[in-house]
Amino acid sequence: MCGIVALYSSSPVNQRLYDALLLLQHRGQDAAGICTVEGRTFHMHKAMGLVRDVFRTRNMRDLLGNCGIGQVRYPTQGNAGSNNESQPFYVNAPYGLVMAHNGNLTNAETLLWELYDHDRRHINTTSDSEVLLNVFANELQLATQGKHLDEDCLFDAIKSMHKRLKGSYAVVCMISGHGLVAFRDPHGLRPLCIGTNTAEDGTTEYMVASESVALEGSEFKLLRDVEPGEAIWIDEKGNLHSRQCAEDVKMAPCIFEYVYLARPDSTIDGISVYAARLRLGEKLAEEIKKTIPLDEIDVVMPIPDSSRPAAAQLAKVLGLEYREGFIKNRYVGRTFIMPGQAIRKKSVRQKLNAMPVEFKDKRVLLVDDSIVRGTTITEIVKMARQSGARKVYVASGAPPVRFPNVYGIDMPTTNELIAGNGKDVESIRKEIGADALVYQTIEGMREAVGGLNPAVPDFDCSCFDGRYVTGDVSPAYLNFIEGQRKAAKEAKKKAEKEAEKEAEKEE
User: What tens digit of pLDDT does each residue of 143-193 get?
Assistant: First the structure.
């Protein structure tokens, strides 16, 4: 769930790329990077941390050029603590390529060996994004043998690349001396859109980004979404070229973007995220009517921030009072993104504070956008009771998250999910300490989101229903990524223990 952006202009792009990444910060807090091109020279700066911490004045001054790309990173594959895996990634041939990627390749291990044994390309990190870059570089090199790079060569390379890649990918890329490229996987799993603006000199500027909010916040007009399987090329003269490069396109964007990931003021594939969350509240209200007597609920409260639209609409539909019972500290990162249960648990109390005046002697319905690991909601239920609530009911705007997500969201193992391994709702209710627990249905979720744009034929709901739209996710693969994650956790614990020992020695 990274955030990516690309900008083509007739004026320096460094500041506007920085501003766009700030608007996409919710999509990744682990690392940030920007690369610009000046003539045929790339200028890059990337590091671990938030956008505001990574880029200083001295860094911005060095990012020269009128074209550039950027990324905010949220790791789902590779080493989360390695600065080497921050993006963008660079290879020097052919021409010189710089790429930023949002998504996750499900056949990265296979591609890794193909690249080494057949294509003779070396991968220096454990990131699937570096794998993707090298696959593209190899196909581009093959397409341009004995030829100058033109529109047909470029799109043929992307067409060949689509045949090799499996999984999710939204990509922005710069080719030295040849402009800016963007493309999206044949299912459109991860979002990507393009916008235009008229510069002061009258030329057309282009911006490509993960969410429309980055365009609008940069005073660009949303032109359209990049279609699944489509590639876009903005050449050095500012001409826009586009072509469908995938042979088997089956549109199925990730529904979790609408439930939680995206900002509410974004529009993805013609669907307003805010409108989708309002409709999710309406559908959830129907389920609450079936489970909890309405006269047993005194007040409806959202768990800030992403559940607010659904909670407000739910309260309106049910004719219940809506109140804000939690105040959010906006200087603490999203717990969902933070690695490790202990860190997430600790940060819940840091980022949310309950107001006893809103809870005392009341029967409270708490509305969350989704319940993934259960760590956050368990702590919040405790906080509500400690603040004086007589009863605490919980409603989730999304169905139970029962299956790993392999397309770029950090839910890779069943054992980490509170609803994993077929756990029933009553068991989950007891575990989180609520007096009642109501989930959205999968059908209700699909209807709520899909009803806003009938042109979107399907959604990836794999973390809810276990149906993986790419068709290549097997039990063996799920076991593989679970083993990877377990090994990464053990390695991290070992490193932390060694660091503690070294600190003790120094003392």
Answer: 999 899 999 999 999 999 999 999 999 999 999 999 999 999 999 999 999
- pLDDT tens profile 372-404: 999 999 999 999 999 999 999 999 999 999 999
| Amino acid identity at 368 | D
Could you report the per-residue pLDDT of 16-64, keeping only the tens digit for each?
Answer: 999 999 999 999 999 999 999 999 999 999 999 999 999 999 999 999 9
Strands 326-328 and 352-354: antiparallel
**Does residue 2 carry a catalytic annotation?**
yes
Q: Hey, which CATH number is domain 3-251, 2.60.120.460, 3.40.50.300, 1.10.3210.10, 3.60.20.10?
A: 3.60.20.10
Of 2, 67, 173, 193, the catalytic one is: 2
Helix (H) or strand (E) holding 205: strand 204-209
Q: How many other C-beta atoms can be found within 10 angstroms of the C-beta atom of residue 109?
A: 15
| SS (HEC) of 42-107 | EEEEEEECCHHHHCCHHHHHHCCCCEEEEEEECCCCCCCCCHHHCCCEEECCCCCEEEEEEEEECC
Domain 273-473 has CATH 3.40.50.2020: yes
Instruction: Name the nearest CA neighbour of 178 among 147, 209, 199.
Output: 147
Amino acid in position 400: P
